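Support request from a user on the community tier.

User writes: "When I paste my structure tokens into the form, the page sometimes reloads and wipes my input. The last time it worked, I copied everything first. Here is what I submitted, just in case something in the input itself triggers the reload:"
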């Protein structure tokens, strides 16, 4: 059976005729409304302080939420959600475009599937109305580019193979994109989105990178297997198309800072990827690092070769995910316990003075389905929490 026959949404077959499109959108919105209402009532019964909850899968048991990002189109916020079918190693990865309603609910306006079945990515980047998604499947590992200039009708630009091996994360900054593979980072010039070009590679020990961020020629890497948060300094010429020149002569990249956990045995089971450092956010020369039972640590990286921990904030539970909105840092905390028995909290932290962070408020413990994927702030007093099969919106306004 072909990918198109086995998958409900594919990049080549998802665009029906205009009349059929309207029917599908109406049916999809109605289905989401019914499922979202069911999820909303169910979570309220568990005393969650939730403003709204909506499922983005066509059926609750069939979809796996991988990650999401907020974008703005013509002044209106849109939520981009990456999902994948739950069963099987290789399944179609789908990017869904969701409208955000005033009450915090979402309506799916369209979706597009990957050019071939793949594994589940853990993040993606949007640059100049193009989404870049890491995709790993039997047909290769690399970058899937999607045109979002008209978010209602996303279109596949193409797929660029970058390397062999496990591919889950990437980060783009301007014309440069870094994508993580099993034993290396590939650096890709995306100035021409139709012809991305691998311009260099950074070799690394086989690792368990769970997140990375490329900002101003610095690559921030969270390695769960080695319990390290690393910073690579990338030295490039003025021409983005020229070959990347790494600082050290052997071309393997220079780790200018390694912040390792002293105790790697105390892990968070399967709620988050194994390791002490579970999430980070970069803001200029500051890095906010969720450090599990070490709380939140704030690093000054203005001197890349000698970063300094300028503050630590202890929390009553483990810091699992972070979201940033101006002077507010939102921290998802998780209690001790087994995978399906954990209790979560959302802490609001004032970081207007990064050297003296202050805990302002906490949404008391709640339980949800297992599988915390993504936490983000919308900028209007709401925090969005992505689970395996649903999205929860919390009101954190003062």
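"...and here is what came back when it finally went through:"
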């Amino acid at each position: 059976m072909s990918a198109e026959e086995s998958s409900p949404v594919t990049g080549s077959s998802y665009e029906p005729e205009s009349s059929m499109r309207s029917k599908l959108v109406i049916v999809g919105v109605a289905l989401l409304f019914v499922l979202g209402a069911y999820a909303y009532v169910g979570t309220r019964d568990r005393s969650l302080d939730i403003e709204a909850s909506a499922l983005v899968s066509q059926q609750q048991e069939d979809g796996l939420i991988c990650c999401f990002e907020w974008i703005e189109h013509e002044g209106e916020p849109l939520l981009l959600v990456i999902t994948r079918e739950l069963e099987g190693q290789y399944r179609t990865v789908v990017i869904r475009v969701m409208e955000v309603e005033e009450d915090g609910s979402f309506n799916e306006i369209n979706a597009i599937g990957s050019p071939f079945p793949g594994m589940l990515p853990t993040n993606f980047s949007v640059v100049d109305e193009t989404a870049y998604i890491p995709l790993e499947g039997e047909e290769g590992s690399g970058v899937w580019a999607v045109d979002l200039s008209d978010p209602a009708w996303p279109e596949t630009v193409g797929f660029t193979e970058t390397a062999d091996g496990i591919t889950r994360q990437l980060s783009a900054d301007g014309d440069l994109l870094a994508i993580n593979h099993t034993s290396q980072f590939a650096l890709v010039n995306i100035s021409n989105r139709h012809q991305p070009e691998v311009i260099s590679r950074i070799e690394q020990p086989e690792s368990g990178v769970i997140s990375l961020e490329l900002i101003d020629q610095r690559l921030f890497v969270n390695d769960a297997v080695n319990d390290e948060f690393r910073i690579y300094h990338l030295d490039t010429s003025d021409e983005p198309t020229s070959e990347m020149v790494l600082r050290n002569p052997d071309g393997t990249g220079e780790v200018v800072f390694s912040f390792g956990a002293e105790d790697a045995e105390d892990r968070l089971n399967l709620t988050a990827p194994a390791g002490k450092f579970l999430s980070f956010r970069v803001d200029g020369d500051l890095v906010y690092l969720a450090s599990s039972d070490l709380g939140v640590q704030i690093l000054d990286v203005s001197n890349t070769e000698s970063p300094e921990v300028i503050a630590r904030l202890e929390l009553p539970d483990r810091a699992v995910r972070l979201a940033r909105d101006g002077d507010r840092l939102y921290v998802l905390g998780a209690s001790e316990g087994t995978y399906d028995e954990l209790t979560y909290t959302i802490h609001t932290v004032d970081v207007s003075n990064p050297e003296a962070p202050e805990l302002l408020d906490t949404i008391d413990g709640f339980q949800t389905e297992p599988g915390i994927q993504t936490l983000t702030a919308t900028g209007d007093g709401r925090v969005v929490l992505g689970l395996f099969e649903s999205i929860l919106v919390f009101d954190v306004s003062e």
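Agent notes: The reload is a front-end session timeout and is unrelated to the input. The helical segments are 3-6, 18-45. Residues 1-50, 54-62, 237-275 have pLDDT under 50 and may be disordered. Escalated to web team.
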